[in-house]
Every structure is written in C-alpha cells, then in structure tokens.
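Supplementary notes for students who missed Thursday's class. We covered one full example, reproduced here. Read the sequence, then the structure, then the short commentary at the end.
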Amino acid sequence: MGKVMNLGRLLSDTARRLPERTSLVWGERSWTWAETNARVDALVAALRRRGLGKGDPILVQAKNSNQMFESLWAAFKLGGIWVPTNYRLTPAEVAFLATSSGAKAMVYDDSFPQHADAVKKASKVLEFTVAIGEARDGEEAFEALVAEGKGEEAEEAEVDYDDPCWFFYTSGTTGRPKAAVLTHGQLVFVTNNHLADLMPGTTHWGDASLVVAPLSHGAGAHALSQVARGAKSVLTAGEKFDEEEIWRLVEEHRITNAFTVPTILTRLVRHPAVDRFDHSSLRYVIYAGAPMYRADQKEALEKLGKVIVQYYGLGEVTGNITVLPREEHSLDDAEMPIGSCGYARTGMEVVIKDAEGKSLGAGEQGEICVRGPAVFAGYHNNPEANAKALKDGWFHTGDLGRLDERGFLFITGRASDMYISGGSNVYPREAEEVLLTHPAVAEVAVLGVPDPEWGEIGVAVVVPEAGETATAEELLAFLTDKLARYKQPRRVFFWDELPKSGYGKVPKHLIRDELYARGDLTEAAAQ
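Structure (token representation):
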C-alpha cells in the first residue's frame, strides 16, 4: 500500500518536541523524552552493527522495565519485528515462540536464564542473545550495547503500510499460540483510534498513564498513544501486584489514565487503599480483555466516579472493535446499555453473521465479525488459521453476540465456551451474571462438562465473598426462577481462587484442567 511513517517516529518526534519532559518513571528512577530516545537510538545503532535490520524478529522475555519499553521502540526503528512473550510462560513455551516466529535475536531478563537456554537449544536461526542485567558467556549485556552506541542517532528504517512490526501472540487457549501480524500502517491507525475513542484530549499537559498490565500485550499498545502525545508512563516498581502501591502512584503522579482488565480493576476498587489516596486526577480507567459484570461496574463507579471506559477487541485488531465511553456508564440501569461492550470504534464496522456467513439483523445472535484499518495482516506462517479467521473481507472473532437497534454490541459468549445440553445451546455467561448478583459470590466461572444423559451439563466454580457463606444447594435454588432449567449448572464447586492467565483473564481450559486434577470433573460427569 506504499510508504508510511515508521512507528518509531512517534518517539523521535516527541523527543524533539518535549526533550526535557518526563517520559517514563519506574520506581525511584525517571527518564526524559530526550534520554529515552537517546538510549533507544544507541541500542538501534549497536544492533545494526550486529547485522539486525528490517524484517528481523526480536524475541523479548522480560517483565515491565525501562529496557522492556525501550526494546519495543528499538525494534520499530530498526524496521524489525517486536516479539514479546508473556513472561509467565514456561521455558518450553517461550522456545516455541522463538522457533515459530523465526526470532533472530533474543532480549531477556537475567532472572530467566532457563528460558534463554531453552530458546538457544530449540532455535536454528537465533544469532545472538541480549541480557537485561548480567550477561553470561556468549551473550551481550543490554546496558553495554546502549553504552556502545551512546551519542549515535539512529534513522528510522523506511517501511511500507503492510510491513510487520509486532508479532502479537494470542493466548493459546485452544491450542498453540498464533502470531498475529501487526503492521506499521495498522498500528498508526490504532494509535489515533485509541486517542480518539478511549482517552480523548490526552496531551503532555498534565496527563500521565499508569502501566498496571504487562507491556507485552494490551498495555504496550496503550503506551503507543501516550508516546504520541508526550504523556509520561509510570511503571509499578514491585514484581507483585500491589494495590497499595498502585493507589499511591495514582496520587503521587496525578495519574489521568490507566489500562487494565476487569478482575484487576475490581481488586483495586475493593482494596482499602482506594480510600486512603487521592485519585481525583483519574479521567480514563480503561478496562478490556474480559466482560465486567454489572455489580462490579457499579462498585467501580461508586468509588471512582464516571471515569471507567470499556472496549472490546482481540489482539488481531489490537483492541479496536467497540468502545463504551465513560459517558455511557451510569449507576442508573435505565441510563446505561447494561451488558453491552459499546458501539463500533471510529473507522471500524461490526456485523453479526450466521454459520453460512449471512449478516443477521438486530437482536439476532451469531458470530461477531469486524472489518476496518485495525484488522491485522494475518497469522504468521499459518494459512489454515488465516483461512478460518479472514473470510469474505471480514475478521471472524470466534465470539458470539448480538447488536441492538442502535448498534450496541452484546457479547453472549465465546463460541468455544458454548456447550450443548439436551440439544440446546447454553452460553455460560448468562448463569455467571445471575450468580454474581448473590451476595455470597465474589467470582464465578461456569463451563460445560460431559454427561451421559444430557451430552453436557454445566458446572459452576465459585469463589465465595469474604465473610459470606452459601451452600451449593442455596446457589442452585437461587437460579431456579431466574434462568431456564437447561441453562442452570447442575453442580457447584467452591475454590479459594480462580486460575488466571498472565493478563488477568480466567481461561476456562485452566479451570477444566484443575477440575480433572482434583478428580471433580470425572465425578461431575458421572452423575
């Protein structure tokens, strides 16, 4: 589609415009835009001398840090491809990402030596490894590369619209992770769209973003818009999630926006520290990645005010499908499209299609499909997945939903979450929504399991609310007049917590695995 701006130019331009303004804060340390850009340019110069250039994938196994942030911009300026991992993955899983991406270089935290070793052993094309921290024999130290290139200016590589710059790996809940190919042209649109739809009015004048989630996924995309507008980003200092620290940082840095997932937002809102620190600076608290239940929305609105923003989107569209802006959130049920994840993002089109690919009308349920400039270029080296996801000019999400007359989207479930009981399709979200209105239920996940009589039945895994109790029989009775019988789970299990992915989601396959491990799934299926 022709030449476009290299995304790395966002950093270069902001550094020229606002050299002395703060770009990044991490613990007690901070950097200006000039300093961050100089470090990135130095890294680019050093990597180019080692033969790294346009189209070369760079695998990054690291927790949030200034070096993690810098690696993204270095990859962009090189014309390379940033390949961040979820740092919680096992060495074998990271080795798969290295081989499937064709990574030519690896950057890793020195706290992950086993991951680096696994990659070196598995990859036939890896040429060199860079350690954040102490380098071992045969490796380069990140800071040594920055020192080597100090003072050098790195010109951004010339790029086309469709040139890849980021392999965004899917979570892999249904098999091996797939690399969604994000391009320079696509992400330029995404950056503008985030600013227009999620956090309008964001500038360097008084705006600051708190990075709660890993930069490797949604938070990294969110950071692009901050850099474009010169708003500083603040990383949490600790390795563990700390509600007290987060609220302290909000007050200290007058945080105006943050990106997170519903489970984390709910934890923050329920923590006593929310009442001890001033959070009046917040303008946009953006949540995505999973549905947020109505009770949790109300709790957040009561504590934070009308600042929460929801969006719906997958990695394949970098989050750009719908938005429910803060103005559409309300404590009053009559003033809010309850259960909706919003309307189509600016420049994007959303339709509901049936199994034959026919577009459905308002109120009809089918697969959510989307098209527009935010749609990815396809999966890397995966023609089978591309044929399934990209059909007739549309990206097929695999999620089920319906649109109302006004164009608000309601997600009814993941196609893979649906189960069939007695010949009827059952979408677990319906039972989950009802169970969450019970005062004794803090979290819940419903999933289908094999049953000799009905084919499949639903089971609910419940995390009790602190200080509250309820029996399985009480919860099942609670559903009696609220849901059709076939939609009601038949068994209830109580756990201390639900397993979560590295991004705060609750993947059903992890719950299923745990039910098997405990012996509960076999028992449930037999009854």
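Commentary. DSSP finds 16 helices and 28 strands in the chain. The radius of gyration is 23 Å. If anything here is unclear, bring it to office hours.
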